[in-house]
Amino acid sequence: MTVATSRPASARPEPAGVDNRLVVGGTPLTWRALPTPALPDPAAVLAHTAGHALAAARQHATHGTELLLSTASRVDAAMRAELLDAGFTVALVDDGGVHPSAPTRPRAAEPGRLWLLTSGSTGRPKRVGHTLDTLTTVRGDQPDRTWLCPYAPGTYAWWQVVTLSLTQPGQHLVVVEPDELDDWPAVAAAHGVDAASGTPTFWRRTLYRDSAALARVPLRQITLGGEPVDQAILDQLREVFPAARISWIYASSEVGASIVVHDGRAGFPVEWLGRKTPGRPTITVHGDELVVTSPYHGAGLAGPIHTGDRVQLIDGRVLITGRLDSDEINVGGSKVSAGVVRAVLTGHPAVAWARVTGRRAPVLGAMVVADVVLTPTAAPVPDEAVLVRWCAERLPEYAVPRRIRVLTEIPVKETLKSDV
């Protein structure tokens, strides 16, 4: 069986950011100078490194070949078989070149189509269709920036940073590999990074491991997304970077970048609900679920989209607390938001990170329990009783954790998220 290769030439104009600087594996170059492979079409590319992923993105921008991009670790045997059956050539790309596996059901490519795999937080990852245009949500003039990209290649957050650099002049990019994540502040400082995007877990983990090294990075723009953003992490970053603009973004593969907040506060103003602005998403709430109507939605997802994310209205703000299927804990008939309890715990000055869940219990049905990681400089070190008392002073009795376990490291997945 033959495998179709990408067309050798393209009528597409060069992306506007093609001369922006890149740092890949410590090596400075530009998008224009990035070596690009000849890829099958359509291709599901499993990139061995961040550099190989950038090369595939550049190739798509130049030739418009149909592309799904991921790391090999996010594609298990079942997903690989699913992709082959869907007509993709599954191609591992490494320093040795392109290693293709032919599709079991070949088909014609859909020009310009990009596919994303969802994070799988609600089950098996699924494919969501986009184009370079629908993934490009920053279009106005921007101040020159050098961005850090710590995300796993092919995720929505990764594409957000990559399309910014590809399409906007003056938006330079430093990518870090997974084995560089622990020391990314040193890499960032060495290459002049002044803007960085990461999940709250990414930022918490960096503050926990070496806040002094983080403070040496001259950040002017800090962006958070991918997980619920609470006030504690915003305040901690503000303390380290008092002059930086700190933003949080609600975005997903399905609805794109839908909410952007710059005021340094968790949640967004309740006045934004139902607001209709041409070319911008409309945000509503159905019950306690966030609903988004977005011009940046994935293929086939037009109209109001139920996100599966739970919200609460507190003090004139709409707080996104977590997933509907995991945020709510039923304690003897009383509903507890795991996200609200987590925000209370992380509000303690000695708590660097927290995870809140429900555990089965007699009579009540469930009780609230938590895992925490304490800040290395905590003094005095709080014990379980101190943290329980902290929660009891701020939460209803039924929402107070009954067990709090102390972990020694903040857990993080490849997507830079924790299981919260």
Molecular structure report:
With 420 residues, the protein is an alpha/beta fold. Among the domains are: 1-6 and 13-193, ANL, N-terminal domain (Rossmann fold, 3-Layer(aba) Sandwich), CATH 3.40.50; 325-407, ANL, C-terminal domain (GMP Synthetase, Chain A, domain 3). It has ten helices and 24 strands. The chain has helices spanning 50-63, 77-85, 132-135, 156-167, 184-190, 200-215, 231-240, 324-327, 338-346, 384-392, and strands at 21-24, 27-30, 43-47, 67-71, 89-94, 97-101, 114-117, 127-130, 145-149, 171-175, 195-198, 221-225, 245-252, 256-261, 268-269, 282-286, 289-293, 305-314, 317-323, 328-331, 334-337, 351-361, 365-374, 403-407. The strands form five sheets. The protein has an eight-stranded mixed sheet, sandwiched between helices.
Give the SSE map.
Layout: E1 21-24, E2 27-30, E3 43-47, H1 50-63, E4 67-71, H2 77-85, E5 89-94, E6 97-101, E7 114-117, E8 127-130, H3 132-135, E9 145-149, H4 156-167, E10 171-175, H5 184-190, E11 195-198, H6 200-215, E12 221-225, H7 231-240, E13 245-252, E14 256-261, E15 268-269, E16 282-286, E17 289-293, E18 305-314, E19 317-323, H8 324-327, E20 328-331, E21 334-337, H9 338-346, E22 351-361, E23 365-374, H10 384-392, E24 403-407
Helix pairs in contact: 6-7
Question: Which short descriptors sum up this protein?
Answer:
420 residues; Rossmann fold; GMP Synthetase, Chain A, domain 3; 8-stranded mixed sheet; 6-stranded mixed sheet; 10 helices; 22% helix; 32% strand; globular; disordered N terminus; ANL_N_sf; AMP-bd_C_sf; medium-chain fatty acid-CoA ligase activity; AMP-binding protein; ligase
